[in-house]
Every structure is written in structure tokens, then in C-alpha cells.
Write a structure and sequence with these properties.
20 strands; six-stranded mixed beta sheet; globular; alpha/beta
């Protein structure tokens, strides 16, 4: 292997009263495409700043090939001391040439003459990208580069990085972005840094193998404490398996929703019963909204059914926020009408995470200073609930202001999902979340009993969560597509494909191919499992809920330990049975699909 451009040996950083990480070895080759993966708070951004030379390590040796230019794109660039974004881009001795910056700015669609003080988060991020790319780095360090970017800008950045001849290291929650670009992976996990010569597409398989080997080692050593330390990792791997079952169910929901679509894309429920009205929570008919001479939404007809997961996508300025406000009643249309169910009770999780007070403790935010929290009508102990959202229970007394951006976002999700509601509005929910938290968020959305409206530029997240996509192209037209982002993209591609003229058609169509041979049907046992498992899974959920209600009694442990112990074991056994049932049903669903 060729000598690396940059390397660190025995890298260590102190944070607070202890080591954030220690004894890390890092090397970056000339054409490396590295994904840097790890939980929020593991030290990913700190490591990136160390590699950039922006901060000093407490121990370790840094070696770099002379003349190597290292450039870092930070999460939140500070433009406060500059009059315009152009002043920020062209500042400093190593600043890029003006013509280079202007060329990239034109492609990204950012006006560098914009006043820095009034620039939005997306504009600041674009300006930072212009500065970083125009500096012609040998090593490019990217910390959440897709935050605040629309899909068009993300795809432009992907294309640029594919052509980039240097090396880059990227921290990102955007699975699609990572999968398309990376060829190696750095994984920060429990104070260690592992490297694999596989891109993010192979990350899950690699980590599963690492966890399995650690589990075997722990069992051989009979190290109970070490096994206990793996509660998070085992939860994550189990969650990934459960998500496979949920993806299969999501596919069924999309097929069901597609069958409801009318010819104009509206949801025309074909149900002749008195319950029809209660199934529609938002009913928009011929809605139009304009600002000045520009029509943002034109003649939209849409019915949102109870339980729908609606994704709203489009470039910045296309009208996503306007559409969201129309659907939720924050603004009224210029023409047409939007009817909403009187029982609609929503919660909103916005980009700014504005509900989090930095001076409060985690305990105060979640449980008003107490030990217990009401979660959808069920009492849970604070420490147990923190674990469900991937927190160390010892963080209960930590101030919100000391948490990382991702941890604050996760805390907000934990608080809001505890509330009873039937409408959930998520505005860019994936910003600042790590991949494990995204897995958790997908699971919570899948289990949510109400309707969900999601504005997001995260393509993979939309493909894993939504049943209907509303796509805006900026002309006022809203495409209503059953499915996720890929389904909307496929519709756009078909629309722009040139139609073949009649003259180009062959004189005679070739004979149709012979029908495929019929495939074997499911065995009696397989068919029975396929039919009955969904009901059993629902029954298990009900049994778990009933047991957890009893366990929520804070006096049960002291009053009747035998019952507490029995219920705890029953819940654990039921969850294992549910995991096995979901995996079995998924296998059968794949068999059925293969027979179609």
C-alpha cells in the first residue's frame, strides 16, 4: 500500500474529566473515500477537526506529506463577522480565487452578494461548500454536508465528489449519499476506531460480524459485565432485523394506498360505509396558493387518510413549507378548501429544535424532575425510557446545553413521542441524527398510530417511512405518488423521457414470449403461518402493553417481587417471540413475491 497523505498515531483527546478517546490510529490515502460513522457524542466531529489541524490533540503524533492541503467543511460555519457571504468565502490567506468561487456558486445556485446576517441556514451551508470546494484540497473533510441542502444540491455535490481526484472523509446521516460515494469506513465505537475497506453499503454486515464475534468472546470468557455493556448494540442489531419486517409491511401499505388513488392522484377511498368520514383526517379540494405573481400550489386535490405517512419533497423554494402549512391549517388557501378532522391533535418537531431549554436537565425535560414519565398513557421509569432512545441513563442529570446537537434532537424526539396525539409533523427530522437514531426514528414512526407529515431531503429515510410522496417541482404542480422518494423520481424520469414517434415503431410486434412455468405454491404450514402471523404479532403487542402497564406501578417491585419478576420475564419472552414472528413472516412474504 502506498504511504498515506496524513496519519495519526496513538491519538488521544481529553474531554471534561476523562478521555473522549485514546490510542486511535488514523491514516488517509491519496484517493480514499471514507465514511466516518459513530453515535452522537462519540467524538466524530472532534476527530475531523483534529485531522484538519483546527485543534490540538492531548496525546499522539500527526504526520502529513509536505504540501498537502486539508480543507474542512464544518457543520455550522460562522459568518457573523462578515458583511456578505462573498466576504466569508474569500477571507483568509488560503482563500480560493474569486473566479473559482463564482463558478461553483453559480452551479450551486447561491448568490454570494447576500448579506451574511440575513442568510438562511441553507445559504450559509452553500457558501461554506463553495469555499471548501474552490480551495482545491488534497484532503476534504465534510461534517454533515447535506444538512440544509435540498435534493438538487445534494445530487450536485454527489456528482462533484465522484469526479474529485483527492481524498475525502465524510460524516453524514444520509445513507444514500454515503452508499453512493464511500469506499472505506471508519467506525468510532466505545472509544475505539475501526477501519474496513468497504464502503457504507457494507457497513451493517461488517458491524453485525463485529458484534457477533464480541458476543462469542464474552461468552467464552464468562464476562457478564462485558455482555451487559452490549445492551445498545444488541438493541440496534435487533432493531435492524425488525425493520426488515416493517419494510415489508410498508410495501403492502403502499400497494393499498396506490389502489386508492384516483385518476388525478387524489385519494379516492372506495369504501361504502358510514365510517368513511372518520378515515379522512385532511381533505383538500382544488387548493391554490400564490404569493404575488407566483403560484406556489395550483389546484391540489388530496385526501389524507388516518394512518398515512406523507412525505413532502422538492428543492428549496418549491413550496414545501407552504404546502405543510396549508395541510395543518397554519395558513388558508387563496381558493379551494381544506377540511380537517375535528379530533386532529398534532405535535410538531421542527428544524430549529426550538422547544429545548439549555438550562434544564434531561430529567426536567422528560419527567418534570421526577422518576417516572407517562408514555402514551403508560408509566415508564425515566432510566428505562432513556435507554429506549439510546441514552446512557446516567445522563438524566445532564444539562440540555451540554448535549451534542444530535443528542438534543434525540431528547426532543423522546419527549414529543411520549405525548398522545394523532398527527405528527416532522420538519427535516433527520438533521443532526446519527444512523442508529435514524433506525430508532423509523421504528417509532412505523409503530405510530396516527398520521405523519414529513418534510425531508433524506431520500433513504423517505423510502423507509412514507406511504405517499407529494413532490413539488416549483411550478405549482404537486405530484401525488404512492410510495417513497424513488417512486416519485421514477415518475419524473418517465415524464421526461422522449416519446417514440409512430414512424419509429417496428412494422410488426414480435410474438409474445411464452408464459413462465407455474411455480410451486406455499406448503400448507407456510400458508397458514403467512395468514396467521400478522394477527399473532398484533396479539403480542397487546399482551406486552398490558404487562408493561402493570410493571409501570412503582410499588409493584417492593410489594410483590414475584409478580414483577414474572411479568418482566414474560415481556422479554414475548418480544423474542415477536422478533421471530416478524422474521418468519418476512421470509414468507419474499417467497410469495417470488411466486408472483
Amino acid at each position: 500500500m502506498a504511504a498515506p497523505l496524513l496519519a495519526y498515531e496513538n491519538l488521544g483527546v481529553v474531554q471534561g474529566s476523562g478521555w473522549l478517546f485514546r490510542h486511535l490510529n488514523v491514516y488517509i490515502g491519496a484517493r480514499d473515500r471514507l465514511a466516518l460513522i459513530g453515535r452522537n457524542g462519540a467524538g466524530k466531529s472532534t476527530l475531523l477537526r483534529l485531522i484538519a489541524g483546527a485543534i490540538e490533540a492531548d496525546e499522539g503524533r500527526r504526520a502529513i506529506v509536505p504540501g498537502t492541503k486539508v480543507v474542512m467543511l464544518e457543520q455550522d460555519p460562522d459568518v457573523s463577522r462578515f458583511a456578505t457571504l462573498e466576504d466569508y468565502v474569500l477571507d483568509g490567506a488560503g482563500a480560493p480565487a474569486r473566479y473559482e468561487a463564482e463558478a461553483i456558486a453559480g452551479q450551486l445556485g447561491i448568490d454570494l452578494s447576500r448579506e451574511a446576517a440575513t442568510a438562511s441556514g441553507g445559504e450559509r451551508r452553500r457558501a461554506a461548500i463553495v469555499r471548501a470546494l474552490a480551495m482545491d484540497p488534497d484532503i476534504l473533510l465534510l461534517d454533515e454536508p447535506t444538512n440544509h441542502l435540498d435534493i438538487a444540491a445534494i445530487e450536485w455535490l454527489e456528482d462533484w465528489l465522484k469526479r474529485f481526484t483527492g481524498a475525502f472523509v465524510v460524516i453524514s446521516h444520509d445513507r444514500t449519499f454515503l452508499t453512493r460515494l464511500t469506499k472505506q469506513t471508519l467506525w468510532m465505537d466505545r472509544g475505539q476506531l475501526r477501519r474496513a475497506e468497504v464502503g457504507f453499503g457494507g457497513f451493517d454486515a461488517w458491524t453485525e460480524a463485529v458484534y457477533a464475534e464480541e458476543e462469542r468472546n464474552a461468552q467464552r470468557l464468562d464476562a457478564k459485565l462485558k455482555i451487559e455493556e452490549h445492551w445498545l448494540q444488541r438493541g440496534v442489531t435487533g432493531r435492524r432485523r425488525r425493520n426488515q419486517g416493517r419494510l415489508a409491511k410498508l410495501k403492502d401499505m403502499r400497494a393499498e394506498r396506490a389502489a386508492m388513488m384516483g385518476p388525478q392522484g387524489a385519494a379516492a377511498l372506495q369504501v361504502a360505509s358510514d365510517d368513511v368520514k372518520t378515515k379522512i383526517v385532511i381533505d383538500a379540494e382544488h387548493v391554490t396558493k400564490a404569493y404575488g405573481d407566483r403560484t406556489i400550489i395550483r389546484d391540489l386535490t388530496l385526501r389524507v387518510a388516518r394512518g398515512d405517512r406523507i412525505g413532502i419533497v422538492g428543492r428549496n423554494g418549491a413550496g414545501k413549507s407552504t404546502l405543510l402549512k396549508l395541510l395543518t391549517g397554519e395558513i388558508e388557501p387563496d381558493s379551494g378548501q381544506v377540511k380537517r378532522a375535528k379530533t386532529l391533535d398534532g405535535i410538531v418537531i421542527d428544524q430549529q429544535r426550538s422547544l429545548m431549554a439549555p438550562h434544564k436537565t434531561v430529567r426536567e425535560v422528560l419527567a418534570d424532575g421526577g422518576e417516572w414519565i407517562d408514555v402514551l398513557g403508560v408509566r415508564k421509569h425515566l432510566h428505562g425510557y432513556l435507554k429506549e432512545f439510546l441514552f446512557d441513563p446516567n445522563l438524566a442529570e445532564a444539562k440540555v446545553g451540554t448535549l451534542s446537537g444530535g443528542e438534543r434532537s434525540r431528547l426532543l424526539l423522546a419527549r414529543e413521542f411520549a405525548r398522545e396525539s394523532n398527527l405528527l409533523v416532522l420538519d427535516e427530522p433527520t438533521n443532526d441524527l446519527d444512523l442508529e437514531t435514524l433506525d430508532l426514528l423509523q421504528e417509532v414512526i412505523a409503530d405510530y398510530g396516527g398520521t405523519v407529515l414529513i418534510v425531508s431531503h433524506d431520500r433513504d429515510f423517505l423510502d423507509r417511512t412514507v406511504t405517499v410522496t407529494l413532490g413539488l417541482d416549483g411550478s405549482g404542480t404537486v405530484d401525488v405518488v404512492a410510495g417513497g422518494y424513488e417512486d416519485w423520481e421514477a415518475k419524473r424520469t418517465r415524464r421526461h423521457e422522449p416519446r417514440k414517434s409512430a414512424a419509429s415503431k417496428p412494422a410488426a410486434a414480435p410474438p409474445p414470449p411464452p408464459p413462465p412455468p407455474s411455480r410451486a405454491k406455499l406448503s400448507y404450514k407456510d400458508q397458514r403461518d403467512f395468514d396467521l402471523l400478522p394477527k399473532r404479532i398484533e396479539a403480542i403487542d397487546a399482551e406486552v402493553a398490558a404487562a408493561e402497564t402493570k410493571l409501570a406501578d412503582p410499588a409493584l417491585y417492593m410489594r410483590d417481587f414475584a409478580t414483577f419478576d414474572r411479568l418482566s420475564k414474560e415481556v422479554a419472552a414475548l418480544r423474542e417471540e415477536k422478533d421471530a414472528a416478524e422474521m418468519r413472516w418476512l421470509e414468507l412474504a419474499e417467497m410469495v413475491e417470488g411466486m408472483a
